[in-house]
């Protein structure tokens, strides 16, 4: 019972000491548990304070240095950790800005279930206008959609579908006020993770475009790619073309599905959502093509993650992509599962 003795805190109606619900308003007379959320998203907004990286002047006007006139630049790299999850995003060497984005969240306090995780990686489509706006909006909305469903005791499959729906809407809305003929767009890969009975962990992933998710179990189990690229290359290979053929190589980064104002009403396919239950420890990894351009095979990525701290693994993978050429933005999310957490 809450409020003054013998009264309902909501309507002040008299209640008995053994009552669990108020007869006046129907409200509960006990503490109702509320889910607790925690979230993070990168890259974070450009810092508003600090010296100019080009001349050292610390005075700015409308984002431009009053000393040299250069615009305050976003950091080349941003990193974040949330619980066991580690996220890294980097501009790379050739792009003038980072058009990738990543977000993650946790929810606790849901009756009769442990902590649940949600994570998203998005890659802005460089040929669209202001793609970083779409990727930032879609990644945060996707996590919010998944967390809301998980907080309502939904399944990981339902959570991933909710995240896809929320991200689709957010990416479309990101075009508001921008050129409708060149609307911002992005890829999307999201995952929901929930511990089950007897040490099992349920993982559901969903994707649109060619950002990827990998399951990297501890040895001797075999690592594998969980998502299927929405790309011309993948369609050609499904039709029988060999991965090293000229046609496949030419279509490697031509995507057939994306999020944005010019995408389909439901941009994901039925095969875009996959669920697996794991009983052995390992690592769930999400990344943009800035990483898998250089490490396309799950086994090669797994070598960076086995027995390594998640943040160190995410940094090492990002550094490898930069040293291999860094031709694109690079984003990596590393989530240890099971005994490695």
TrEMBL record:
CDD domains assigned: PP2Cc
Identify the Gene3D superfamilies for this entry: PPM-type phosphatase domain
Chain ranges passing through the membrane: none
Q: Per the database record, which ranges form the PPM-type phosphatase domain? A: 84-337
Q: Which domain of life is it from?
A: Bacteria
| SMART domains associated with the record | PP2C_SIG, PP2Cc
| Name listed for the protein in its UniProt record | Serine/threonine-protein phosphatase
Give the organism, scientific name: Mycolicibacterium hodleri
């Amino acid at each position: 019972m809450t409020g003054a003795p013998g009264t309902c805190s909501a309507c002040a109606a008299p209640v008995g000491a053994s009552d669990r619900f108020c007869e006046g308003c129907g409200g509960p007379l006990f503490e109702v548990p509320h889910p607790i959320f925690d979230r993070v998203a990168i890259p974070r907004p450009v810092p508003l304070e600090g010296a100019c990286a080009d001349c050292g002047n610390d005075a700015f006007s409308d984002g431009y240095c009053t000393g040299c006139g250069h615009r305050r630049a976003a950091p080349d790299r941003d990193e974040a950790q949330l619980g066991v999850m580690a996220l890294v995003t980097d501009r790379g060497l050739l792009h003038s800005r980072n058009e990738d984005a990543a977000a993650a969240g946790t929810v606790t306090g849901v009756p009769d279930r442990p902590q649940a995780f949600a994570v998203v990686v998005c890659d802005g489509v460089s040929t669209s206008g202001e793609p970083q706006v779409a990727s930032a909006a879609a990644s945060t909305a996707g996590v919010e959609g998944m967390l809301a469903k998980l907080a309502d005791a939904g399944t990981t499959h339902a959570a991933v579908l909710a995240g896809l729906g929320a991200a689709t809407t957010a990416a479309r809305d990101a075009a508001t006020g921008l050129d409708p003929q060149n609307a911002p767009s992005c890829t999307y890969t999201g995952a929901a993770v929930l511990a089950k009975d007897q040490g099992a962990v349920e993982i559901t992933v969903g994707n649109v475009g060619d950002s990827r998710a990998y399951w990297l179990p501890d040895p001797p189990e075999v690592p594998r790619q969980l998502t299927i690229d929405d790309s011309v290359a993948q369609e050609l290979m499904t039709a029988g073309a060999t991965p090293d053929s000229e046609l496949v190589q030419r279509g490697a980064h031509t995507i057939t599905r994306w999020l944005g104002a010019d995408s389909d009403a439901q941009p994901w396919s039925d095969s875009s959502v996959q669920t697996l239950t794991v009983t052995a420890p390992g690592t769930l990894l999400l990344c943009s093509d800035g990483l898998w351009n250089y490490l396309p095979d799950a086994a090669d990525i797994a070598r960076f993650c086995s027995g390594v701290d998640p943040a160190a693994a995410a940094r090492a993978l990002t550094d490898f992509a930069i040293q291999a050429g860094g031709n694109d933005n690079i984003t990596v999310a590393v989530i240890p599962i099971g005994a490695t957490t």
